[in-house]
Queue: 2 jobs
Job 1
Amino acid sequence: MASIKGHCLCKSIQFKINSECRKSVFCHCKMCQRSNSEFSLYTKVNLKNLIITKKNSLKWYSSSKAYKRGFCSKCGSSLFFQKQVSPSHIAVITGCLNKSVPTVGHIYYQDKKNKLTIGKNLKKFKKSSEGFFDNHIYKIR
Ligand SMILES: [Zn+2]
């Protein structure tokens, strides 16, 4: 089965994404600015397609009532973003993947800080896309 491997900086957390994932989306929200960088790039994976092979140092931070953020407690890499209650999917930071995933858009564009423009022809949402990008699937090969 085709897959993309990923790991944190120190390799204490290792995983793979099997078969498919959502195309990647830039998030410019203020919480991601603090947690990752001035903007973040995420793919989104059905839980059945994410196989975590090593996770001894995986810790979760509840960044809001609805969502939590997964990171490596050893090296500090930010890796995951997920619903607190009955998640069906997990958002994965594309920077920790061994391959790039095509990019389709921007969310929380109203919070964008830097004047630098990346992917200006991509679809933009001022806030959440409310699932708009969910059917933009990338078939891994
Ligand atoms: Zn690590």
Note: The first strand starts at residue 3 and ends at 7.
Job 2
Amino acid sequence: MKHYKESYYNEFKNQIESSGRDLLALEAKIGDLKIETPSWGYGNAGTRFKVFTDPASARNVYERVDDAALIHELCGAAPSIALHIPWDSTDDWSGLQQYAANKNLKLGAINPNLFQDEDYKLGSVCHPNPAIRQKATDHLLECCQIMTKTESNLLSVWLADGTNYSGQDDIRNRKHRMLDCLQTAYKALPPDGLMLLEYKFFEPAFCHTDIADWGTSLALCRRLGKRAKTLVDTGHHPQGTNIAYVVAQLLDEECLGGFHFNARQYADDDLIVGSNNSWDIFVIFTELIQAKELASDVAFMIDQSHNIEPKLEAMLQSVLNCQSAYAKALLVDYDELHSTQSQGDVLGAHRILKDAFETDVRPWLAHWRLERGLQTDPVTHLRQSGEVEKRVRSRRD
Ligand SMILES: [Mn+2]
């Protein structure tokens, strides 16, 4: 909200309180939403066709920490950074941790890389060759050790494993190979560590992927133990999938570990979350709020790569869009919703969600920021701050 006035907030407050809601109680919950941003969203990234370089982009893990710290400073809602191994590897983990802490940032989920090595052409933990599987397992074990060094409690596993042609490999055997490797890593997790198992229905494999959907991830987590949970990447479903349904199922099974938020048009596009799926994100948050303590440990992370858009602004906008969807979900009167549902009032219940979704929460969030010493419009502030130009100068010398 570019030209915020306190009268906008007062009008909003009157509107909400006239319907009998305790706005301040809801307002106190806005800060509960913490979104982790990914180190890989700050560096140059691209498609299979071309990587367009951005002169402001971060070149190493310290610069990526600088960028994540700036996003948190601007929005007050992104206090940690997810790391990718080996892209973010360093010889001095405690030095990196201290560097981040000095900037009010924590090191977050550790993401192993089991897809970028020549050896992984036919898979990693599912590979037919036991030596390759051992190499993949060793990498997972190394990541568990890094978790201890960085005091991270999440090992966030995404596998590119799969096949391109029917008959290429034995699907059930691949599953058993994968379980063997993952079990070894599971046992090496730090005492408070969780393993998050991400699924994706296609790409880079096109005939089958070894963890294609939430049901497969759930089944694997059940085999591994209570500290293995499913990670939902909002870009990893076939067109038309109702992700809120998936979220509700995983919450009820006590197996929802976290999210990778982003938006998609056709495939795994990694676009700015909320750019074209704000309703979906809103409905996901209504499920999380209704699940109460079942959702208390769910990790919220962004997984995006910014190809043509300015990276800092894209990341900031993503966090703000999550916050906006969450604020709208807080406005739903769940008691009224449940009573309307029990009366079988199809559209009455639907309208309760729509009313909350269509409420303009910008004055509310601007006010929330002001109370915390933040700028009411972080995006405009970033554009005027000179931070991007400063990066162009210092990073391209
Ligand atoms: Mn992801």
Note: The pocket of manganese (II) ion is lined by residues 158, 198, 233, 260, 303 (CB under 6 Å).
